[in-house]
Amino acid sequence: MVQSGKAAPKHSLSAGMAAITSRDNRWLKRFRSALGGEREDDGMVGVEGLRMVEAALGSGLRIEALLVSESGERQMERLAPLLGGAQILRTSDRLFAGVADTQAPQGIAALVQTRQATVEDLLRGCALVAVLVGVQDPGNVGTILRAAEAFGATGAATCSADALGTADPLGPKALRASAGSALRLPVVHGLPASALLPKLRAAGVKLYAAAKEASEQAPRSGSPSLRPWEADWKSPVALLIGNEGAGLPEDIMRAADARVSIPQAAATTPIGIESLNAAMAASVLLYEAMRQRKARR
Fold first, then answer.
1. Largest pairwise CA distance in the chain
2. Residues 155 and 217 in one domain
3. Which whole-number Å values give the CA distances from 73 to 91, 178, 236, in the listed order?
């Protein structure tokens, strides 16, 4: 509450907010667990910071509540056109810091009801699906989803294979790396690759496996090896992206219609640069897919 003798901030919405003054408040407990990455069966997730809250408000998803601290109130004018009927809760900077997942909280967070995407959602139109298989770094997962949305993918799937899972796309680090794409893009999470790939193939989707230089993996697989511009990205396609270190499992490599590898400049030193990481490679290949599709139109 505003203390006597002090003017309220010019754009304060305090009058319309419920004030929270106890760290044991049930709303603070909900925000603490959601912003920490815990997710209940209802699919509710927590997002924090002006950009992420703005992305959530503009996504069309249901916002259960906004939590705004004293320092976060100055952002409310910018967010006002997007608020709709969202419930707004006010608390102190000290209590907000106790629930935040970031080191320098901006004083604003939201509880967001995420969509439950299906495989059919990924296949709408001329499908372009990013399939992450065992991508364990949340930053890579979020960056790939951001690139997928930017380059026109119809959706993504985060899969497990050989007991190796993919990081939760709605976890705090992945959400931040995706810059909100994980909220907007249809994403199927947790489906084994062995269950997803037959469904994609039955729907007429080509399977392209992102691979290292062709010479390194050609003897291990009978599928042809292509450069990005040699692949046909204009038809329905799924791009398979493997684990940061091990790549795609051998059985998935063999099942793909083709391996796609990105050529690199020759090394200028004895050690040279390693192959591109999962997020960089996915971004290059998804961009080529968009380029071909735009050229066709």
1. 78
2. yes
3. 10, 25, 46
Q: What phi and psi values does residue 237 have, to the nearest 5 degrees?
A: -140, 145
255 assigned to some structural domain: yes
CATH assignment of the domain containing 93: 3.30.1330.30
What's the rounded Cα separation, in Å, for the pair 279 and 47?
22
End-to-end CA distance of the chain: 57
Helical spans, DSSP H, in 64-152: 76-79, 93-99, 119-122, 138-150
**pLDDT, tens digit, 9 for 90 and up, residues 42-76:** 778 999 999 999 999 998 899 999 999 999 999 89
Domain encompassing residue 184:
119-296
Closest by CA position to 206, among listed 258, 247, 243:
258
Residue type, 90: R
Q: Distance (Å, rounded) from C-alpha 10 to C-alpha 73?
A: 10
pTM: 0.85
